[in-house]
Amino acid sequence: MSNTEQTGRPGVDAGDEQSLGAAGEHLSTAPAQDEESAEVALPRLGAIGWIRWFWRQLTSMRVALILLFLLSLGAIPGSLIPQNGVDETKVDAFKKAHGTLAPIYEKLQLFDVYGSVWFSAIYILLFVSLIGCILPRTWQFVGQLRSRPPGAPKRLTRLPAYTTWRTGATPEEARGEALRLLRKNRFRAHVAGDAVAAEKGYLREVGNLLFHVALIVMLLAFAAGQLFKSEGGKLIVEGDGFANTLSQYDDFRSGSLFSLDDLGHFSFELDSFTGTYETDGPQRGTPRTFEAAVTYAEGGGPDKKAVIRVNEPLEVDGAKVYLISHGYAPVITVRDGRGKVVSQGPVPLLPIDANVTSQGVLKVMDGYTDKNGKKDQLGIPAFFVPTYAGKGKGDMFSQFPGLVYPVLSLSAYHGDLRVDSGVPQNVYQLDTSKMTPFKDATGDILRKQLTPGETFTLPDGAGSITFEKEIKEWASFQISQQPGNGWALTGAVAAILGLIGSLFVQRRRVWVRAVRGEDGVTVIEMAGLGRSESAKLPEELAELAAALHSAAPSAPADDVVDHDAEPAEEAVPAEGATQ
């Protein structure tokens, strides 16, 4: 039996291994006889060791990308599912329509994604991970900037891009020309021994750091926008105005750190609204122009004129006023049983389709009395179409969004509007639980279609409702203050620039060695090494070599060849090099 068969290792016999004692047992590769002896005592991680391991994992680029991906996934339900901070009415409607899913979504905090525990955890971990990535890399990069490029390797022929030639210039002259050439081409270069060492492409790392810093800026801007934001809506009829105070808003939402003192000091009035539409062809009814002409004043200053368009907000005192939607407000006059005017003015109605078919309610709470002088309240549901198809030509729906053939359909109820019940009411809906409808001779609910100028007379001397010839338009505005928007935009632009730099800039090093050969002729070697693979490195080295060759040209053949000397080993360029 051979030594290998006896001990499991070639060249060592059993007797030699026994003479080595315990050391020989550790050197042997033979199978262990005792299973207990095969157990290896691994060091145990203590609390500090586990903390270090967790910190290294958290600050790794892999984990940062995973957290960024999770943050993107977490934002998807915030876009698809109604949010409490955006529209509570839609949230309530969703809960009523989905009795099974609603409790599950509630437990998962899907109705308040951006304020949920799990989204905040991902957000904070990503923030910490990016900071943990940036700080050591920044310190390391500063150290690289303060230091000089490393000296030339001993064997430049092993580098991926290499070239060499002999020249009649002295080594000092060749190195001087190489130093000037490389610095002229924006390399950081210096003479190190018998070679010139140069490096270029620091913008790649600058781009990487800029990208990560920009992500942190965007995260901070997002957090500031959520904590200090304010956002409210206001519906304004032509001729009416708005002052930026809390009581003027129809709805208002703000961040947890927002203060009412932060509201901008301004006001504006809606002078007119202009909407135009395509009148014929396959795109008939498509909006062409939405413009709201306003007069505004900032901080008690002089009045100024402006036009607000879709995606062209009015910027005033740190806030932006966006044009959101529009509709019609027919002017309606209500008289009581004695002919006294108890209500007169435009009644905003909400659109329910693209052709601005609208509905709403006029509530007469005070001042109305019947023919006997008894106080009562009126509720008048209204249905308005700006372009009526005509009787017998379809349902009561508009055929065109413009005012071509306006018709107003009305019915009426009297009784208790329940506005003093303590239960919040929608101003565009009517609670008929304590009200009685006016009926016609057949016992059905009395309804009347009116054109501008016509009057709807209520039965039993209860009064009348007149659809005036004037029809006003209203516009809905969103007044928003988000202090982080500018920073978020800056961070996004910086992130794109940093990403471009990190992808298209290559970090590379070039060495030029100039030494005197055995025959007394100067030998120049040039080699390049990229921090990442790129086909441009050999091309760049070829251009540098050509420029240096013009300053230190090849020596004549008679000076280069020494027939008495032993032939030197020819340097063969590596694959992809330039000779």
- The strand count comes to 23
Helix and strand content put the structural class at alpha+beta
End-to-end CA span: 57 Å
Q: What's the helical proportion of residues? A: 25-40%
Described by the principal axes of the CA atoms, the overall outline is elongated
Task: Give a structural overview.
This protein has 579 residues and is of the alpha+beta class. It has helices at residues 3-7, 14-20, 22-27, 47-58, 61-80, 88-97, 101-107, 117-146, 171-184, 203-228, 485-504, 536-551, 557-560; strands spanning 161-167, 188-192, 195-200, 230-237, 241-243, 251-254, 266-277, 287-298, 304-309, 314-316, 319-335, 341-346, 350-351, 358-364, 377-385, 407-411, 413-415, 435-437, 447-450, 455-457, 464-481, 508-516, 522-530. The strands form 4 sheets. Strands 4, 6, 10, 11, 12, 20 and 21 form a 7-stranded antiparallel beta sheet that branches. Strands 13, 14, 15, 16, 17, 18 and 19 form a 7-stranded antiparallel beta sheet that branches. A 5-stranded antiparallel beta sheet has the order 1-23-22-3-2, covered by helices on one side. The longest helix has 30 residues, at 117-146. The two termini are 57 Å apart. Residues 1-32 and 560-579 have low confidence and may be disordered.
